[in-house]
Specification:
By secondary structure, this protein is an alpha+beta fold. The chain has a domain of 237 residues: 4-Layer Sandwich (Glutamine Phosphoribosylpyrophosphate, subunit 1, domain 1), CATH 3.60.20. Helices cover 32% and strands 22% of the residues. It has ten helices and 13 strands. The strands form two sheets. It has an eight-stranded mixed sheet with strand order 4-3-2-6-5-1-11-12. A five-stranded mixed sheet has the order 7-8-9-10-13. Helix 2 runs antiparallel to helix 3, helix 3 packs antiparallel against helix 4 and helix 9 packs across helix 10.
Length: 358
């Protein structure tokens, strides 16, 4: 006789099939949902290939998974050519780089986060120090900077010359009702902007599980480019841009932070996995929820679908993994970074909708 668990699994698989049929969702290869015999497993956003390799190497050498993922994303935070995080991140509308980050540790079920942090290259490491050395979860703005100073984090000008030129180009061209004059044709910033969307939601999420099944995660970002000063997205919000439960697994998000916050995105993915969904299917289910709950006309395309991108990345404590995006190609192909079964590579993410918004 079928058990309650059997019935639940059947209903969940049927629900995912219904979502796929209703939306035309593309699913990635089934290998991402198959149990991995070899841990560690480390998953990250597409810009995290170096981070997954670094974290996996540290875990294999005995490091705690939280130390490993924080060190991994630190490589991206310090890269001035990645305009989505840390040094070289794109600034707010005033030309000031404000960084957000969160970390969560499965074995202790503790978290730390910072938001609107200025002048510090490695906000993820500061967030880890909040977890380790305070009774708080989130520090913001000037308080976060004072805390970082107290712990010896050096201050650095985060706005690189390249990021400054991109910001100035935006400032000089986004309106004809001010006194800023557009640069001459052929200005170097023009070529840079071919690779940087007018508004960038760049972020890096990285989650890992070690050989013992212990899970940890981190999300770090410079946030929405040209944002209103003080804007905070999903990345430092536990349950939105990151959530870890050592009994289940971990999930993180990148993309439009406001949409992820409004739907408790990463927490919802973990809860879907707790209920029995595979990581990829859990990501798709929450993307469908976000899509269904997007009501504002300015956030909908001509076909009534969200006109923005969101990604989720998820792993389980037994080593399964998966990722899904709202759109299969939103300026770039939907991909994610993964270290599993001893190999570090990039794979295609599943998607809720093919192509890009109409």
């Amino acid at each position: 006789m079928p058990t309650e668990l059997d019935r639940r699994a059947f209903l969940q698989s049927a629900a995912v099939a219904t979502v796929a049929a209703a939306t035309g969702a593309r699913t990635a290869l089934a290998q991402s949902d198959a149990p991995s015999a070899a841990r560690p497993v480390v998953i990250a956003s597409a810009n995290g290939t170096n981070a997954t390799a670094k974290a996996a190497d540290m875990i294999a050498s005995g490091a705690d998974p939280l130390d490993a993922v924080v060190a991994g994303v630190g490589l991206v935070e310090a890269d001035p050519n990645d305009h989505s995080v840390g040094l070289g991140g794109l600034p707010n509308e005033d030309g000031v780089v404000e960084l957000d980050a969160s970390v969560m540790h499965g074995p202790t079920h503790r978290a730390g986060a910072v938001a609107a942090l200025r002048n510090i290259v490695h906000p993820a490491a500061v967030a880890q120090r909040v977890l380790e050395r305070t009774d708080h979860v989130l520090l913001v703005g000037e308080g976060a900077l004072r805390f970082a100073r107290a712990h010896g984090f050096p201050e650095t000008e985060l706005l690189t010359d390249e990021a400054r030129r991109i910001w100035l180009h935006w400032k000089e061209t986004h309106s004809e009702r001010d006194d800023w004059i557009a640069p001459p044709a052929g200005d170097k910033a023009q070529s840079w902007l071919q690779h940087v969307q007018t508004f960038t939601y760049g972020t890096i999420n990285c989650c890992a599980v070690d050989a013992a099944g212990n899970v940890a995660g981190v999300t770090t970002t410079s946030g929405l480019s040209y944002k209103i000063p003080g804007r905070v997205g999903d990345s430092p919000i536990i349950g939105a841009g990151l959530y870890v439960d050592n009994a289940v697994g971990a999930a993180g998000a990148t993309g439009r932070g406001e949409a992820v916050i409004l739907n408790a995105g990463s927490f919802s993915v973990v809860e879907q996995m707790r209920g029995g969904l595979a990581p990829q299917d859990a990501c798709l289910a929450v993307l469908k929820r976000i899509s269904d709950r997007t009501k504002d006309p300015r956030l909908l395309d001509a076909n009534g679908k969200p006109n923005y991108q969101v990604y989720f990345y998820a792993i389980t404590r037994d080593g399964r993994y998966g990722s899904a995006a709202m759109w299969s190609n939103f300026g770039r192909r939907a991909e994610f970074s993964i270290y599993a079964a001893g190999r570090n590579r990039t794979e295609d993410a599943a998607c809720l909708y093919e192509g890009r918004p109409a």
